[in-house]
Amino acid sequence: MQLHVLNNLTRTLEPFQPINKEEVRVYSCGPTVYNSVHIGNLRSFLAADMIQRVLRTVGGYAVKWVMNVTDIDDKTIRDSAIGADTWIAEEMGEQTRDVMQNLKSLTDYYTRKFVQDIEKVRIQTHNMAEMPRATSYIQEMQNLVSRIAENGFAYESGGSIYFNVSKWSETGRYGQLRKIDFDNFRSGVRIDADEYDREQVSDFALWKGKKDDEPFWEFEFQGRSVPGRPGWHLECSAMEREILGLPFDVHTGGVDLKFPHHEDEIAQSEAGYGVKPTTYWMHNEFLEVEGKKMSKSLGNFYKLDDLIEKGVDPLDVRYLMNSVQYSTKLNFTFAGIEASKKARLRVQEYIYTLYDDGDGTHVVDAQELVTSVFAELAQDINTPKALGVLFGWLNAHPAATIATESRQHVLDALAKINEVFDVWTIEPRPAVEIPADIVELAERRKTARATRDWAEADKMRDALQAAGWVCKDTKDGYELTKL
Ligand code: AMP
Ligand code: ZN
User: Fold this and answer.
1) Stated pTM of the model
2) I need a labelling partner for 356 at 20 to 30 A (CA). Which of 215, 254, 325, 464 fits?
3) How far apart are CA 47 and CA 40, in angstroms?
């Protein structure tokens, strides 16, 4: 099916046309592994997961999907520094005096945690061609810095190497994702921080000079030794080229990454390799809490495990995130989680009912269901509309009324839809596990009835009821159902 996507480079909905029809290449900005991700971050990774699923299932493409892990930046260095809180030692074993080892311990620990978290919400890690760690691509990053410098767009100052934004902006190619106010540009002012806002347009660090006891790599730059470490933007530019080749098809990330991260990625790639990084830039909107971005710095965040502890099913988190389009803001509430659970279980119940014995006579066209749901997903991953179409169809075709010969077709259709949503199980209703003490009460009731001890039988029935079970007599004995 022909897909359309909102391309933030052109700010228009465009027909999706891959560079190579045989394989669509997607790069997603992943987590910075200095801590556990919160569910705001998860929204971004879930959006990427939906994009690659729709490309595969609805678009019919083979997809090479890569999500990076930032394991060297300002925050990972800060939190792995010697003398940091004792939790480092507690969580990851002995802390050493080797800063590189401490960085590795911290980032290994949180990378593992990240994979566990995203697998709980069924992000398809098995569909990732690679989850590259920045520290494995230092050589490629250094090569890119050298190329940018050879082309005249980088310079060294005070032991660090900067991207010359004022010179690059003369090409008219700075400000592709976001309009830049060059009146505010402060020529000669340099920014070392990885994160900065629009008002701070100035030269950014490609390579940050070694500081006292920070982790560093040797770097021969224009015949001189410039030990240090890569800037965050440089990392993605080098890894995406190395792993996917340039240009690739889709680059994903949160809206906050448009500037400076993605704008700087474009600048580095074009100034160094002479090639734009990607065709389509797709950005997810924020998960908010009372009108504010969920973020570590505001302290208004939940981690997935916090929610699980409160009894939330990760599948309801997945459902909630897809109940709005990825490019629309979503306000997080527990009422929203509850509503998601209700909606999700309605479909699950429908699936179970299709497996039950039935005497329905309604012959249906299940293919039409798949086509109409996929048609909505094909329009910029419009998950809420797709769910709307699904519910409309299910309401119009109650499971119990569906003819036996159509049931497998409907189950196949729901399985196909579930390849994208992945919040249901296409299986018969699981048999309820009945605890042994409940079975014993029911057996005693059966014996009492057989011996016509009605008082004892009533006592057993009341005991079962008090424990939350109903005992119904059948021709073969009894049937227990949970209240
Ligand atoms: P970070 O680890 O801070 O680099 O963030 C990882 C990803 O999460 C980036 O793509 C961010 O844009 C995204 N992100 C951070 N906070 C939120 C939020 N509240 N809602 C949606 N995406 C977010
Ligand atoms: Zn990135």
Assistant:
1) 0.89
2) 464
3) 11
